[in-house]
């Protein structure tokens, strides 16, 4: 089955700096890649997603890049703010699996003022 | 439009009892996914259901766990004869199908004493 690796497991940045989280996946058939943000004790919330026919997607301070050849994708957060502090999960899925998401283990991001 | 509704939010069971977790998908969503999250870990896929059908249960333990999504009513995740290792947060997500985004509920936190 699909295996999603996520790095780093923890990331600490100063407010205003950029944060980058990287994920790799194993199943070349994967074609949908969402990112979720989970605050402590709360539900995961979708923040951005990308499909395999697109190499990059941006939404205000958040961007995601996808390299299908290398089977990796990354989340970029610019001008970080303390409220960006949370755990971020990448995921990958395929139509073969009914788009059941396989998640990475998460990155705990801390933005210090 | 109410989001994905899960109940109860917290559930305490003694070893050997049964736990029943309920999930009502978002309006218009007919695809339901259950995930388990252990403390400080990622989300592990358990089962994917459509109305009256289990599509993929590859993540479900072979014994004691079952899931259903009847024609009427919520999806139910049932854990029989719970053990301490079943303590976790159980999240339900729903979607319209295809590569449409998964939306998560607030989860049920199961504690087995």
Write a structural description.
The complex is a heterodimer of chains A (113) and B (113). Chain A has 113 residues and is mostly beta strands. Chain A has no helices and 11 strands. Chain A has strands at 4-7, 10-14, 19-25, 32-38, 45-51, 56-59, 62-67, 72-77, 86-92, 102-103, 107-112. In chain A, the strands form 2 sheets. In chain A, strands 2, 4, 5, 9, 10 and 11 form a 6-stranded mixed β-sheet that branches. A 5-stranded antiparallel β-sheet of chain A has the order 1-3-8-7-6, with no helix packed on it. In chain A, strand 6 and strand 7 form a beta hairpin. With 113 residues, chain B is mainly β. Chain B is 0% helix and 50% strand. Chain B has strands at residues 5-7, 10-13, 19-24, 31-37, 43-50, 53-56, 65-68, 75-79, 88-95, 103-104, 108-112. In chain B, the strands form 2 sheets. In chain B, strands 2, 4, 5, 6, 9, 10 and 11 form a 7-stranded mixed β-sheet that branches. The interface between A and B is medium-sized, with 26 and 26 residues.
Keywords:
heterodimer, A: 113 residues, mainly beta, six-stranded mixed beta sheet, five-stranded antiparallel beta sheet, globular, B: mainly beta, seven-stranded mixed beta sheet, four-stranded antiparallel beta sheet, 0% helix
Structural class of chain B: mainly beta
SSE topology string of chain B: EEEEEEEEEEE
The average pLDDT of chain B is: 94
Q: How helical, in percent, are the residues of chain A? A: under 10%
SSE sequence of chain A, one letter per element: EEEEEEEEEEE
The stretches of 5 or more residues of chain A where confidence is low (pLDDT under 50) are none
Shape of chain A: globular
Briefly note the structural class of the backbone of chain A. Answer: mainly beta
Compute the CA-based radius of gyration of chain B: 13 Å
């Amino acid at each position: 089955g699909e295996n999603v690796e996520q790095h780093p497991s923890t990331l600490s940045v100063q407010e205003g700096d950029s944060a980058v989280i990287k994920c790799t996946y194993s199943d070349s058939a994967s074609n949908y890649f969402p990112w979720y943000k989970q605050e402590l004790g709360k539900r995961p919330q979708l923040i951005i997603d990308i499909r395999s026919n697109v190499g990059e997607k941006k939404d205000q301070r958040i961007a995601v890049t996808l390299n299908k050849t290398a089977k990796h994708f990354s989340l970029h957060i610019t001008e970080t703010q303390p409220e960006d502090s949370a755990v971020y999960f990448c995921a990958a899925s395929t139509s073969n699996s009914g788009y059941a998401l396989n998640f990475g283990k998460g990155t705990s991001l801390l933005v210090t003022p | 439009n109410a989001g994905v509704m899960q109940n109860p939010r917290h559930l305490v069971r003694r070893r050997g009892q049964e736990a029943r977790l309920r999930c009502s998908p978002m309006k218009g969503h007919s695809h339901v996914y259950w995930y388990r999250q252990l403390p400080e870990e990622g989300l592990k896929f358990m089962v994917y259901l459509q109305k009256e059908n289990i599509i993929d249960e590859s993540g479900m333990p072979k014994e004691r766990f079952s899931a259903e999504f009847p024609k009427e009513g919520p999806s139910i995740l049932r854990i029989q004869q719970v053990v301490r290792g079943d303590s976790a947060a159980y999240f339900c997500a729903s979607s319209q199908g295809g590569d449409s985004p998964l939306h998560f509920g607030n989860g049920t936190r199961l504690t087995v004493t």
